[in-house]
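In this section we walk through a basic example: taking a raw amino acid sequence and producing a predicted 3D structure, encoded as discrete structure tokens. The instruction is simple. Fold the sequence below.
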Amino acid sequence: MNKSCLFLLAMSFPAMSWASEALPDLPAVTQSLLTGKSVSVVLDLGLCKPGSSDVEPTKTRGGLRIDAFRVTEDGTLAFADDHFSVNRDGKPINQFLRYRVHPDGSAEFSMTIFSVPDYRQIDKTLTYQCGIGKGLSFFAGVEFRRVESALAASDQPALNHTLSSRSMTSIRASPRG
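The resulting token sequence is shown next.
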């Protein structure tokens, strides 16, 4: 491989250093989380059922990386997210999103909105019934170690130094580094 090809490959490494692997069921999700992998969840409420007759169906989609989680004795995976946002009237709000995934693959998603700064609940909590592969998808981050190993085996110490420096910069710059 010539120097320019190796240089281009090394420079593109941070951009391609992570891929995702679909996790097909709760045991795969739980195993990935318990072994420290970065796991993301993608929610498509258009594929979920409203939890009650007064909750409107929606086509809303979104996702997040799971930070904190809990696996209960019966194998249920629970995690949540809260974040600040602005409602349609331009007022600040705090959204609280809760996920519970059961061993049979069924799941509940709920969203509660609070006003800011007094944290009074705005309207009712919205709930949806989903499932893995039925509105809820999980992905684990997979690092491309083979590319790094192949480059590290080359006889070009300067390229290896560049690769190491850029990889560490990429890791420090990422929110989950």
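Looking at the output, two observations stand out. The two ends are 31 Å apart (CA to CA). The beta strands are 18-23, 39-44, 49-50, 61-65, 69-71, 77-86, 92-101, 106-115, 121-132, 135-143. In the next section we compare this with other chains.
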